[in-house]
Design a protein that fits this description.
It is flat, with a radius of gyration of 31 Å. It has 3 domains: about 5-130, Rossmann fold (3-Layer(aba) Sandwich), CATH 3.40.50; about 145-310, Rossmann fold (3-Layer(aba) Sandwich); about 315-445, Helicase, Ruva Protein, domain 3 (Orthogonal Bundle). It is about 50% helix and about 15% strand. α4 links the parallel β4 (about 75-80) and β5. The model has no long low-confidence stretch (mean pLDDT about 90). The chain is built from 19 helices and 14 strands. By secondary structure, the chain is of the alpha/beta class. α13 packs across α15 and α17 crosses α18 (about 425-430). About 35% of the residues are buried.
Length: about 450
C-alpha cells in the first residue's frame, strides 16, 4: 500500500527538503509550517506517519504528539530536535513517540526509521482489518444463507450497524428477525455494552410498562422494591423490542418519548431519567396497515422505521435450504449421539417442494424430528413429519416471484435432481439438456458432480 507522510516544521528548507526526499522514495507527502496546520491535516484523516519538529511557535511538537497519541494512536510520530533538546526528545519517547533524530539530519537514518515505522503501521492495519473481518464473520455466523436475498440482508446489516438510527426489522414468524437484531448490535460500536431483549407479545399491558421502564417501590400492589426497567439496563447499548406491533397506545406514547427525548420516568416515579440507547424493533405485522386502522401511532412508526430491513421468508430463498439442512443435521446428530450422513433424494424433493409457512423455525423442527425418527444412515421420506412428507405427493414446482432467471434455473435443476434421487442421467433427460451441461452447472454451483 502507498503511505502518506506529514512533515511539520517551521523551517521551510527542512520541510521542503524532507518532502522532496520522501516523494523520491515513493511516498505521498503533505507539509505544514505550524503545529496548528499539522493537526488540521491529521483531523482530515489519510495520514500514516508524522515527522514533526519539537520546538515550534504556537503548538509545539510535544503537543502534536499528545494529540496524535490520544486521538489516533495507530499513527507513528517521529520527533526532530536540536542538540540542546535531547532530554525533551527522550521524554517524548516515553510519551509515545516512535523515535527521534537530532539536527542536522542524517537522511539515510531517517529514511530507515520511517520505513521501519511504516512496516509496523502496515502490520497494525492488517491486524485491524483481520479482526474486523473475524468480528463480522462471528456476528453473522448464525445467519446461514448464501442466496441473493440473504446477501442483501447481510449487506444492509453491515451498512447500518454502526449508526445511531433506529431499525425496524420485518418478516414472517420464524425467519430469524432476532438473529438480525443480534448481528446489528454485535457489529456496532455498542457491542461491548448491553443487548437487552424484550418480547412485547409475552407481557400484559401493565407488566410490559413496568418491564420496559421499571417501577418505584410501592408503585402498585406487589411492588415491594425499586426495579430498573429494560431501557435503563440497556443504557449505552441496544434494546430489541420484538413484536412491537402488539403493544398498546399507552406504552407506544412512552416509547415515542424515549426515541424523541431520550427521557422517561419509572412507573410510580417522578424523577426523569436520561438514557442513551439504540432501539431495534421487529414485527411480523404490516405496521402501515396497523397505522391506517388506528392501532399503531403514525409518529412512532416513522421514528422506528428510520432504517427498514425486511427478512424474506424461506420459500423465497430455497437456495439456502441445503446449507440450513446441513447445519441442523450436524447440530441434532451431536445432540442425539447419531451419525446420519445426509438426506436421501425423495426426502430432499419433499423438503424443496414444501413451502415452509413456519420458515426456518419449522425447518429446524423438521430436521430435529427427522434425526430422532431416522434409524439408518440417511434421512428418508418416511422420517419427515406428515405435513412435509405430504408435499412429495405433488409434482408441482413453485418459484417465488422476483428471482432472476439464473436463480430459477438453479432451483429447477436442484429440485429435479432431488426428485430423481440424484440420478444425473435421468435428470438431464427430464430437463432436456446434455449430461455435460448438467455437470458443468452443478460444478459452478459447488454441488457434488461425482458419477452415479
Amino acid at each position: 500500500m502507498k503511505f502518506t507522510l506529514l512533515i511539520i516544521d517551521d523551517e521551510k528548507n527542512i520541510r521542503e527538503g524532507l518532502a522532496a526526499n520522501f516523494e523520491l522514495e515513493g511516498y505521498d507527502v503533505k507539509t505544514a509550517a505550524t503545529g496548528e496546520e499539522g493537526l488540521a491535516l491529521i483531523e482530515k484523516g489519510d495520514i500514516d506517519l508524522v515527522i514533526t519538529d519539537l520546538r515550534m511557535p504556537g503548538i509545539s511538537g510535544e503537543k502534536v504528539l499528545a494529540k496524535v497519541t490520544a486521538e489516533t494512536p495507530g499513527i507513528p510520530v517521529i520527533i526532530l530536535t536540536g542538540h540542546g533538546s535531547i532530554d525533551s526528545a527522550v521524554d517524548a519517547m516515553r510519551h509515545g513517540a516512535y523515535d527521534f533524530l537530532t539536527k542536522p539530519l542524517n537522511l539515510d537514518q531517517l529514511t530507515m526509521i520511517v520505513k521501519r515505522a511504516l512496516e509496523s503501521r502496515e502490520m497494525s492495519l492488517q491486524h485491524q482489518q483481520l479482526k474486523k473481518e473475524l468480528e463480522d464473520s462471528s456476528a453473522l455466523k448464525g445467519m446461514i444463507g448464501k442466496s441473493s436475498p440473504m446477501q442483501k440482508v447481510q449487506a444492509m446489516i453491515r451498512k447500518v450497524a454502526d449508526s445511531k438510527a433506529s431499525v425496524l426489522i420485518t418478516g414472517e414468524s420464524g425467519v430469524g428477525k432476532e438473529l438480525v437484531a443480534n448481528a446489528i448490535h454485535s457489529l456496532s460500536s455498542r457491542r461491548n455494552n448491553s443487548f437487552i431483549k424484550v418480547h412485547c407479545a409475552a407481557l400484559s399491558e401493565t407488566l410490559l410498562e413496568s418491564e420496559l421502564f421499571g417501577h418505584e417501590k410501592g408503585a402498585f400492589t406487589g411492588a415491594d422494591r425499586l426495579k430498573k426497567g429494560r431501557f435503563e439496563l440497556a443504557h449505552g447499548g441496544t434494546i430489541f423490542l420484538d413484536e412491537i406491533g402488539e403493544i398498546n397506545q399507552n406504552v407506544q406514547i412512552k416509547i415515542l418519548r424515549v426515541l424523541q427525548e431520550h427521557k422517561f420516568e419509572r412507573v410510580g416515579g417522578e424523577q426523569t431519567l436520561d438514557v442513551d440507547v439504540r432501539v431495534v424493533a421487529a414485527t411480523n405485522r404490516v405496521l402501515e396497515d396497523e397505522v391506517k386502522e388506528g392501532r399503531f401511532r403514525e409518529d412512532l412508526y416513522y421514528r422506528l422505521n428510520v432504517i427498514h430491513i425486511h427478512v424474506p421468508p424461506l420459500r423465497e430463498r430455497k437456495d439456502d435450504i441445503p446449507l440450513l439442512m446441513s447445519s441442523f443435521l450436524d447440530e441434532f446428530n451431536r445432540e442425539n449421539g447419531k451419525n446420519i450422513s445426509g438426506v436421501d433424494g425423495r426426502a430432499k424433493a419433499a423438503i424443496f417442494k414444501y413451502n415452509w409457512p413456519g420458515n426456518i423455525r419449522e425447518l429446524r423442527n423438521c430436521m430435529e424430528s427427522a434425526v430422532v425418527m431416522c434409524s439408518g444412515e440417511e434421512i428418508t421420506l418416511e422420517d419427515l413429519p406428515p405435513s412435509v412428507r405430504g408435499s412429495s405427493e405433488s409434482d408441482m414446482l413453485s418459484l417465488p416471484l422476483g428471482i432472476t432467471l439464473d436463480e430459477a434455473e438453479k432451483l429447477i435443476i436442484k429440485e429435479t435432481l432431488a426428485m430423481n434421487s440424484n440420478n444425473k442421467s435421468k435428470t438431464a433427460e427430464v430437463l432436456g439438456i446434455g449430461r455435460k451441461t448438467l455437470h458443468r452447472k452443478l460444478s459452478e454451483w459447488g454441488i457434488d458432480t461425482g458419477e452415479e
